[in-house]
């Protein structure tokens, strides 16, 4: 068995740890994840860099060890390998490697160079991912007040609805009618861990509930106000609230966050979630209004096109908060969630307001 560096974590942190190692691109796909009585051993492709170690520190307990781990038995080929004999090598290099899996649906972005091969790419994904029954191709950007994009069925069943599981929660999702990103799973879990018993949380753009539902499941004595302007998203949110048995903690509200906060939620929140990166800056005043007079925390998501995205995001947030007669007293956390285009990043900043 090959000897490699591995991440040793308690079994209770297994799912969170595997997702995190995948996110920072350290998971060794050629070796099996193994376990002892109390620990999980996750093979790494290399020793973590300083930046990677910083990200790993969000795990409450972990060790780096040298382990002998068995090689993974490959059960199927990748979609790239399926296409190897169907596309020219110059075309093959343009085949998308990144695929979003939402339940049994796969979502992929097919570049213009391969627009005539969508069906072949879709069939290859179905063949290489047996749990997938539908493959959708992105046909546009996320846009509009409802934050949805056009999607095209390129293989499998003609559907956009599915069931998605994340940590201990389940969600009804319609990827054509309400925004949902499985790439934010680590963020959903991280923010959930910051909410304390007895607190009140306002999610200004709740979608189908990936932030508010785990918060309510983890802390029984919390009040969560989940707002969204998209009626389809709120309909799914309400189904998910019932599905996850958090009716007592979650109040789902259909409407414009600005109007709802002004009318019903002024000064109610210990924490405010602002996952609308396209236009979150325009709603900082709403978050300031929602936070309790004595202060609280906002989780601010935005897009930044700059080589120093964290510094820019912090500066923009401080300026906007000051303009609304409040101040940022400290930053609890800041990181780039992902690169969405060359030198364009999705950023999250957790800020304490007074």
UniProtKB/TrEMBL annotation:
Keywords: Cytoplasm, Methyltransferase, S-adenosyl-L-methionine, Transferase, tRNA processing. It catalyses: guanosine(37) in tRNA + S-adenosyl-L-methionine = N(1)-methylguanosine(37) in tRNA + S-adenosyl-L-homocysteine + H(+). The lineage of its organism: Archaea, Candidatus Bathyarchaeota, MCG-1. This is tRNA (guanine(37)-N(1))-methyltransferase. PANTHER family: TRNA (GUANINE(37)-N1)-METHYLTRANSFERASE (PTHR23245:SF36), TRNA METHYLTRANSFERASE (PTHR23245). GO terms for cellular component: cytoplasm. GO terms for biological process: tRNA N1-guanine methylation. It holds the Pfam family TYW2_N_2. It comes from miscellaneous Crenarchaeota group-1 archaeon SG8-32-1. It comes from the Archaea. Residues 99-354 form the SAM-dependent methyltransferase TRM5/TYW2-type domain. Its EC number is 2.1.1.228. It is an enzyme of class 2 (transferase). GO terms for molecular function: tRNA (guanine(37)-N1)-methyltransferase activity. InterPro entries: MeTrfase_TRM5/TYW2, SAM-dependent_MTases_sf, TRM5-TYW2-like_MTfase, TRM5/TYW2-like_N, Trm5a/b_N. PROSITE patterns: SAM_MT_TRM5_TYW2 (PS51684).
């Amino acid at each position: 068995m090959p000897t490699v560096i591995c991440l040793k974590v308690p079994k209770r942190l297994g799912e969170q740890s595997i997702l995190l190692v995948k996110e920072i691109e350290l998971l060794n796909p050629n070796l099996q994840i193994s376990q002892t009585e109390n620990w999980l051993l996750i093979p790494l492709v290399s020793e973590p860099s300083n930046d990677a170690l910083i990200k790993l520190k969000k795990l409450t307990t972990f060790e780096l060890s040298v382990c002998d781990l068995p090689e993974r038995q490959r059960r199927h080929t990748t979609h790239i390998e399926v296409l190897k004999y169907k596309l020219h090598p110059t075309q093959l290099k343009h085949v998308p490697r990144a695929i979003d899996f939402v339940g049994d649906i796969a979502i992929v972005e097919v570049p213009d160079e391969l627009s005539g091969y969508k069906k072949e790419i879709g069939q290859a994904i179905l063949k290489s991912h047996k749990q997938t029954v539908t493959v959708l191709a992105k046909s546009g950007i996320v846009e509009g007040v409802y934050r949805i994009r056009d999607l095209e069925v390129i293989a499998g069943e003609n559907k956009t609805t599915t069931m998605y599981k994340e940590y201990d929660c389940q969600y009804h999702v319609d990827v054509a009618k309400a925004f949902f990103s499985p790439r934010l799973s680590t963020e959903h879990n991280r923010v959930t861990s910051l909410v304390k018993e007895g607190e009140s949380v306002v999610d200004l753009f709740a979608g189908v509930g990936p932030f508010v539902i785990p918060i309510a499941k983890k802390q029984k004595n919390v009040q969560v106000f989940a707002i969204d302007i998209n009626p389809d998203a709120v309909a799914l949110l309400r189904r998910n609230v019932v599905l996850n048995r958090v009716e007592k903690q979650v109040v789902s509200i259909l409407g414009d966050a600005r109007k709802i906060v002004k009318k019903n939620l002024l000064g109610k929140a210990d924490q405010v979630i602002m996952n609308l990166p396209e236009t979150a800056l325009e709603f900082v005043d709403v978050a300031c209004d929602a936070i309790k007079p004595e202060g609280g925390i906002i989780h601010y998501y935005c897009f930044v096109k700059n080589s120093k995205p964290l510094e820019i995001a912090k500066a923009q947030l401080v300026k906007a908060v000051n303009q609304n007669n409040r101040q940022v007293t400290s930053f609890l956390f800041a990181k780039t969630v992902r690169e969405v285009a060359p030198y364009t990043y999705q950023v999250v900043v957790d800020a304490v307001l007074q």
